[in-house]
Amino acid sequence: MPKLQLSRVTKSYGAFHALKAIDLSVDPGEFIVMVGPSGCGKSTLLKAIAGLEAITSGSIVINGRDVTSAQPSDRGIAMVFQSYALYPHMTVAENMGFGLRMANRPKEEIRVAVERAAATLRLTDQLEKLPRQLSGGQRQRVAIGRAITRSPEVFLFDEPLSNLDAALRTQMRVELASLHAQLNATMIYVTHDQIEAMTMASRIVVLNAGRIEQVGSPLDLYRNPDNQFVAGFLGAPRMNFLAGTVEAIVGGVATIQLAGASAYAMPLRPGADLAPGSAVTVGLRPESLTPTDGAGIPGTVRLVELLGRETILYVDAGPLRSVGSDTGTANLTVHVASAVAAPPGAAVRLRFNPDDAYLFGGDGLRTLSAPKSI
Amino acid sequence: MGSMPALPTLIEGADMHDHWRRHREWLSPTLFILPGAAIFGVVIIWSALQSVWISLHDWDGMGPMTWVGLGNFEELFRDDNFYTSLKNNLIWLVVFMLAPPIGLAIALLVNQQIAGMRFLKSLFFVPLVLASVAVGVVFTWLYTPGIGLLAIIFSAFGATAPALLSDERLVTFAVVVAALWPQIAFCMVLYLAGLNGLSEDLIGAGRVDGARGWRMLRHVVLPQLSQVTFIAIAVTAIGALRSFDIVSVMTQGGPFGSSSVLAYMMYEQSIFSYRFGYGAAIATVLFAIMAVFIAWYLQSIYKAERGNG
Amino acid sequence: MYPRPIPQTARAARALYVALVAAILVVWLAPLLAIILTSLRATNDVASGNLWGWPTEFGAVDNYERVFTQSPMARFFLNSLMITIPAVIGVLVLSTLTGFVLAKYRFPGGRAVFAMFIGGNFLPAQIIMIPVRNLMLTLGIYDTHWALIIFHVAFQTGFATLFMRNFIAALPGELFEAARAEGASPFQTLRHVVIPLVRPALGALAILIFTFIWNDYFWAVVLVVNDTVKPVTAGLANLRGEFVSQWNILSAATVVVAVPPVVMFFLMQRHFISGLTAGAVKG
Hints:
The complex is a heterotrimer of chains A (374), B (309) and C (283). Chain A has two domains: 4-232, P-loop containing nucleotide triphosphate hydrolases (Rossmann fold, 3-Layer(aba) Sandwich), CATH 3.40.50; 241-361, CATH 2.40.50.140. Chain A is α+β, with helices and mostly antiparallel strands. In chain A, 40% of the residues are buried. Chain A has helices at residues 42-50, 92-102, 107-120, 136-149, 166-183, 194-200, 218-223, 228-233, and strands spanning 4-13, 16-26, 31-35, 57-62, 65-66, 77-80, 154-158, 186-190, 203-208, 211-216, 240-250, 253-258, 263-267, 279-284, 290-291, 297-306, 311-317, 330-336, 347-351, 358-361. Chain A has eight helices and 20 strands. In chain A, a hairpin with a 4-residue loop joins strand 12 and strand 13 (263-267). Chain B is an all-alpha fold and 309 residues long. Chain B has two domains: 6-54, no CATH class; 71-308, MetI-like (MetI-like fold, Orthogonal Bundle). Chain B is built from 14 helices and two strands, in the order H-E-E-H-H-H-H-H-H-H-H-H-H-H-H-H. Chain C folds into two domains: 11-68, no CATH class; 70-278, MetI-like fold. Chain C has 14 helices and no strands. Chain C has helices spanning 11-28, 30-39, 43-47, 60-69, 73-104, 110-121, 125-139, 145-169, 173-181, 186-215, 218-223, 232-242, 247-267, 269-278. Chain C starts with 10 loop residues before the first helix and ends in a 5-residue tail after the last helix. The chains are: A alpha+beta (374), B mainly alpha (309), C mainly alpha (283). Chains in contact: A-C, B-C. Chains B and C meet through helix 1, helix 4, helix 5, helix 6 and helix 8 of B and helix 1, helix 2, helix 5, helix 6 and helix 7 of C.
């Protein structure tokens, strides 16, 4: 039985549809990360699951029980908020025990639950302090501890690490992942940070404009994006998108002409309806492009980012055309896994293996190239 | 009967509890807001509407009310006292507009972090917390011919101070000056808060760009204080139109009604002459004039609210 | 900071500046200083016209004693306390409830109720005077403390609601979502979350409302007539008729009326200023 089942969950504000018929099934113990650009509906969806936002239609089932119209506290969820939402006038222990106190549980039970959660999160020495006496990371752990004491069916996290500095964020990422393993709990986690998504998720849900674009394991999404949005959203630096035209299709392999460059043969997905002459978008991850001494796409280095072990080159590739760029020329991002000495202005030639390229329909809505072997 | 009723009661009790839990999310807020909204609605809002109704009647405050339609208003617009009061309200409004700039000037004066300045600053606030009756008595004393502070100052220059409160031409100005005193302090408080909230970055940018003194004030500081200025002007205008206490204490509208304002005239007609319908008509006109400022003010708060949210 | 701070190293300039501000302050407060000085004068000096020269004797104790023994000022003072304190408590209770609901709940008509509170707050007293007076007569509490208490509670609830609503609206919304997610009922949220968090605002509001009610004069002359219920403001106006040219006594009485709000102000100055500017809508 799935731990959480969303069926056609819809949320409208007048004519604006924040969530459009969302379907999602979450198994026990899964760590689901919902990502998407701001305004995509991910926080709304989380609040709908929590019961803090009423949905317009659809149903939400937690642990086999329909909770669509239940109060938040009756849903078996606990939520960790972006700002932590710790009550400033209560001690750490009071904050963590507040939910149980509201449920009129005996004092002793609350004490035990709080102490156990505190031990899990190394907060035992902080229990009598007020939130303002704690560091950011500690506050974050109190917020998580508050969720743990309620032993919920599902944990909900709303961008919980976005208020932490970079170093602490990395550390908390690791702690959260190990906490998930330790509690074996079902967690739903909203973030706009794709690194958090890639590193922590058992499955990622990519949301865009109130719709689910794709659901899958991090690597699956990275390697086999369903469409140009997912391909562009996951992966840093971002995938390069170039305009191309179909020259010919022979036996499931399309020959694609990149504007101003040579033609490349790319295998198609079965059933990809594509006719010669139609416009397509070719996606190239920065790491798929390599500087070469031999034949390749000619370009000029505009900017070099030396990151030590790796280098990112920004290359103006004159004859190519970027999709969605109005400058006319293509600006390619190239990731090289070593230090490269290429001064700005230097001429480079870039090559790529057509097997590493992605092919999207001209509208970007579907991926046409065949899945890459993993 | 035996034990039979126990079961339904129990179920009903559970039902009730469930019912309460299901509805408390809207029922409790309703119960919370009810007492405040009810007492305010009845005592304040309903009374205001009732006044408009009373203004259409002849009424001595005890006997039956006689419908006179717009009769009270017609009489009012022929009443010389009404125009005197209206003119005085206008004088109040104009002179009161000195409060925002003077308040700003004092705020700028004391906005320095020097030891002791904080204490001086709070002494500047004092007129604000004085009862207006007290302010009225204080200024009456100042203006007292022959022995008041003003008379002493004039005689120091070999002149004789005019008897301000018995001079029909000067009396209103004398009264407004008294009322201006706490009003300036109020504007000063607003501007000090505004100066506190200035963007340090913008001031810094202005300094780097070479703006100083008056030009800094004009081009960098005042634009940031526009909201405060607006509040100061609107509240000062409303205060000028509401003026009652100081007139009542200092002159009771005299001499010969020459310092009366609409608020005082209304009070006098109702309480002393038992002309409640006529009084209500004056109040209605006063309210209509103020409604312009109130609407202007509310609309701009509403805009600011929308801007923030 | 604007104006440009006088540098800390310019000690002489700073001292000079403070002296300048102090001189301006003396002019600014001259009316008040005059009344305080007069309240210290002996009756003989006042009678003989020696109001500003060197006093021949010290009259302060006598003056203030006479204010309390030869006039009903003690009674007025007690009345003011008996009216102001219950009214302030009533306003705080009601406005916490209304402010909480208007800040954190969306419901049909909510905006209209809020507009009613703000708009009503600006009504000139005269437009409600006659019906309010009638209401108190009908209720049989005209010319009692209750008339003023009930009126002030009703009227100040408008301003106080605006004040509390703005304060509570500024509290982070996630605190309230967290409370809901953890099963706190609206009443529990009020008790365990709102009230502890609004305590500083209640302090500021209490002294503001205290000052407003203490200083009220209009309603004191409209709703009560008897000396046994009159508050200090209406009382002081009466004394002017009683002690016509005894300016030393009148001055002392004025100082007595002025003292409580001034003391309150100095005790809780920060609260007072922040409160006044936060709800800068009070006329």
